[in-house]
C-alpha cells in the first residue's frame, strides 16, 4: 500500500517538540539505546522535523504591525479567563463576548478568534457551547459562519452530551449550503463520543451516498474507534481493509484507534502487530501511542515491555496518568517478580493520598500478606479500615491469617479479628482456628474456650477440625479430663474418632 508524508507527520513532530519543551521526554538522555521492540528511525525524520520547524517559525515571525498567532492565543486566553470567572452567569458571559467581539474580529481573520476560544475552552464544553450559541445567534457579526465554525459547534454540542443540538447545527449548516466532509465527521464524532454507534454508522452510509462529500481518513478513524470501543473486531478490521483499498494515507490516529480496539478486546498479539506496523511506516508514534502500549502491556502482564515503554514516558505518566500507574502496580501484584514489592513501593509514591481506590488497597493487602511483609500488610489493613473498605473474599482473609501465624503475631491477630468483626469483613472458621492453634501453642486454655464462644456468636458451629485442634492442644499438655470432654463432644456431633485417640 502506498504511503505518503502527510500533515499528520509534521503535526506529530511538532507535538513531540511541544512535549520536550514542557519537560516531557519520550527518549530521555539517560537511555542510550531505544528498546529492541521499538524501531525509531531518526535519520529519516530529520528533514521532516526541519520542515515542521519552518512552519512553526512562520507563525511567530510575521512583520511588525501584523497580529501573530501568539498574539491571538494570548488575547483569547485573557478573554477565556474572564468567561470562566463568570461562567455561572449566562447573561454576563454574553455581555463579555459582546464587549470583546469587535476588537477580536477587527484584528484577526474572520472566525479565527472564535475557533481559538473554543479550542481553549475544550475542557469546559458547557461554557464553550454558550460561546458558540452566542456566535450562532449574533446578528451583529457581519461575516457568516463558515464550515470550520459549524464543525466546531457540532463537536462542542457532542461533548456537552447535547446530541439533538449537534444534529440541529449539522442540518442548519446543510441548509446554508455547508455540507462537507468536515461537518459529517464532526457529527459522526459527536455520535461516537456519546456511544451512539448505530447512528454513527448510519451517518457514514449517508455520507457515502452524498455525491458532494468523500469520506476522509478522519472518517474511517472515527469508525475504527467506534467498532474498537464496542469490541467489534471484525468490523474494525474490515474498515481498515477498506482504507487500504482506497489508498488513503494512514495517520497516527488510525494506528492509535486500532491499538485501542485490540486492547479493549484483550488481543495482545494483534496490538503488538499494529505497533510494529506503525514503526515500519512513515508515521511516527506519539505520546498517546506509548500510553496505549503501556496500558496494554500492563494489562497483559508483559512486564519487560511495560517497563521499556514506561522508561520513555515516565515523567509524563507519573505526573498526569495516575490510572496507568495503578495499572502497573496491578501488573506487579499479579506477577512473580522477585522485587515486585520494591517496585510497587516506588510507584505508590506517585499516587496522591486522596486518590484512594478500594480494589487497589485490597490487592496490596493480599500482596503484602503473600510476601509475609507484616508491617506493610498492617498499614494497608489500617487504611482499609479507615476508608470503610471491607474484605469479603475468603482467599484474601486466609492470606492475612496465614501471615499472622507465620510471623507468630498473636496480639496483632487478636486486634485484627476484633476490628474485622466490627467492620463487616468476611469472618470464617479459619480465622478462629488460627487463634485456637496460636493460643494452644502458648497454653492459653481459657482463651481457647472464649474462641468457641466467639464462633457461636457468629453462628459458626464447631467442625471436626475445630475439635481436633482442641484435642491436640489438651493432649500435648496432659489435660486428660479436657481430652475426654473434647472426644465426647466429637461423638455428640457425630464425628468419627479413631480408637487410639483415647488416652490410656
UniProtKB/TrEMBL annotation:
Entry keyword set: Repeat
Stretches forming PPR repeats: 251-285
A single MF term (Gene Ontology): mRNA binding
Family of this protein: Belongs to the PPR family. P subfamily.
PANTHER family, sorted: EXPRESSED PROTEIN (PTHR47874), OS05G0407900 PROTEIN (PTHR47874:SF1)
Protein name (Swiss-Prot/TrEMBL): Pentatricopeptide repeat-containing protein
Protein source organism: Canavalia gladiata
Amino acid at each position: 500500500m502506498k504511503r505518503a508524508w502527510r500533515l499528520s507527520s509534521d503535526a506529530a513532530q511538532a507535538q513531540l517538540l511541544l512535549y520536550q519543551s514542557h519537560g516531557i521526554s519520550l527518549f530521555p538522555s539517560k537511555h542510550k539505546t531505544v528498546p529492541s521492540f521499538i524501531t525509531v528511525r531518526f535519520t529519516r525524520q530529520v528533514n521532516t522535523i526541519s520542515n515542521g520547524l519552518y512552519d512553526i517559525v512562520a507563525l511567530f515571525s510575521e512583520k511588525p504591525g501584523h497580529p501573530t498567532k501568539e498574539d491571538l492565543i494570548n488575547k483569547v486566553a485573557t478573554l477565556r479567563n474572564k468567561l470562566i470567572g463568570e461562567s455561572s452567569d449566562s447573561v454576563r458571559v454574553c455581555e463579555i463576548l459582546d464587549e470583546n467581539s469587535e476588537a477580536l474580529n477587527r484584528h484577526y481573520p474572520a472566525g479565527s478568534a472564535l475557533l481559538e476560544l473554543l479550542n481553549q475552552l475544550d475542557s469546559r464544553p458547557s461554557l464553550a457551547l454558550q460561546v458558540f450559541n452566542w456566535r450562532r445567534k449574533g446578528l451583529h457579526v457581519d461575516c457568516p459562519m463558515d464550515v470550520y465554525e459549524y464543525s466546531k459547534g457540532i463537536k462542542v454540542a457532542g461533548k456537552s452530551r447535547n446530541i439533538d443540538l449537534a444534529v440541529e447545527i449539522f442540518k442548519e449548516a446543510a441548509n446554508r449550503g455547508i455540507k462537507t466532509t468536515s461537518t459529517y465527521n464532526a457529527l459522526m464524532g459527536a455520535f461516537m463520543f456519546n456511544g451512539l454507534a448505530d447512528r454513527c454508522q448510519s451517518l457514514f452510509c449517508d455520507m457515502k451516498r452524498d455525491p458532494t462529500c468523500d469520506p476522509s481518513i478522519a472518517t474511517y478513524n472515527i469508525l475504527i474507534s467506534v467498532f474498537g470501543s464496542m469490541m467489534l473486531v471484525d468490523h474494525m478490521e474490515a474498515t481498515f481493509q477498506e482504507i487500504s483499498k482506497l489508498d488513503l494515507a494512514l495517520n497516527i490516529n488510525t494506528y492509535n484507534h486500532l491499538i485501542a480496539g485490540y486492547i479493549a478486546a484483550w488481543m495482545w498479539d494483534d496490538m503488538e502487530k499494529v505497533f510494529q506496523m506503525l514503526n515500519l511506516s512513515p508515521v511516527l508514534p506519539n505520546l498517546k501511542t506509548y500510553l496505549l502500549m503501556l496500558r496494554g502491556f500492563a494489562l497483559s502482564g508483559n512486564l519487560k515491555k511495560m517497563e521499556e515503554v514506561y522508561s520513555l514516558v515516565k515523567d509524563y505518566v507519573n505526573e498526569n496518568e495516575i490510572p496507568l500507574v495503578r495499572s502497573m502496580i496491578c501488573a506487579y501484584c499479579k506477577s512473580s517478580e522477585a522485587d515486585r514489592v520494591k517496585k510497587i513501593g516506588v510507584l505508590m509514591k506517585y499516587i496522591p493520598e486522596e486518590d484512594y481506590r478500594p480494589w487497589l488497597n485490597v490487592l496490596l493487602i493480599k500482596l503484602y500478606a503473600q510476601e509475609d511483609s507484616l508491617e506493610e500488610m498492617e498499614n494497608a489493613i489500617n487504611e482499609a479500615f479507615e476508608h470503610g473498605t471491607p474484605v469479603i473474599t475468603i482467599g484474601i482473609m486466609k492470606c492475612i491469617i496465614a501471615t499472622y501465624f507465620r510471623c507468630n503475631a498473636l496480639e496483632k491477630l487478636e486486634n485484627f479479628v476484633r476490628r474485622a468483626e466490627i467492620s463487616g469483613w468476611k469472618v470464617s472458621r479459619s480465622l478462629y482456628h488460627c487463634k485456637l492453634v496460636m493460643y494452644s501453642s502458648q497454653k492459653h486454655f481459657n482463651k481457647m474456650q472464649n474462641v468457641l464462644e466467639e464462633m457461636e456468636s457468629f453462628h459458626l458451629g464447631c467442625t471436626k477440625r475445630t475439635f481436633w485442634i482442641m484435642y491436640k492442644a489438651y493432649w500435648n499438655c496432659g489435660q486428660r479430663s479436657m481430652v475426654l470432654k473434647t472426644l465426647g463432644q466429637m461423638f455428640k456431633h457425630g464425628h468419627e474418632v479413631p480408637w487410639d485417640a483415647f488416652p490410656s
